[in-house]
Amino acid sequence: MNERGSLELGKTIDDFIEELNEKKGINNDSLSDAKELATLTKSPVYFGCNENQSEEKIRSCLNDSFKKHVAQKMDIETYAEVLPTGLHKTYCFFKISIKGKVTDIKAYGHYKRVEEEVVRIINLVPQLKPGEVDGKKVNVTYALPILFSIE
């Protein structure tokens, strides 16, 4: 990060999904066959997370790992000169497939360049161990709100 910008990532909560769905022209049909994280009996496991912990700790590690990945890969300095000062929000939705791959990545925000960068960054996520419901691997939806500030 530089002196003009900082990055803060939020958590995956239903409020962000509802807020996005209320925005005009946004369609998440490609995610409709996937389960929500809260409905799983086993959450997806990010590389480096301990799958032998409680579900709460696995989900926390997953969320923290996504945050860390985005923070490491996103170069705020690139946008500091072209975006207005202030807080910027981009919502990223994707699916974690039954094979543990991140697919169907969609990003929504006010700036196309930022949306494209978020999609590029999420495409770099390493393969995960897929989520399960009652021992069966399932596709999982994931929402990642990304907030960053240009000063």
From TrEMBL:
<protein>
    <recommendedName>
        <fullName>TonB C-terminal domain-containing protein</fullName>
    </recommendedName>
</protein>
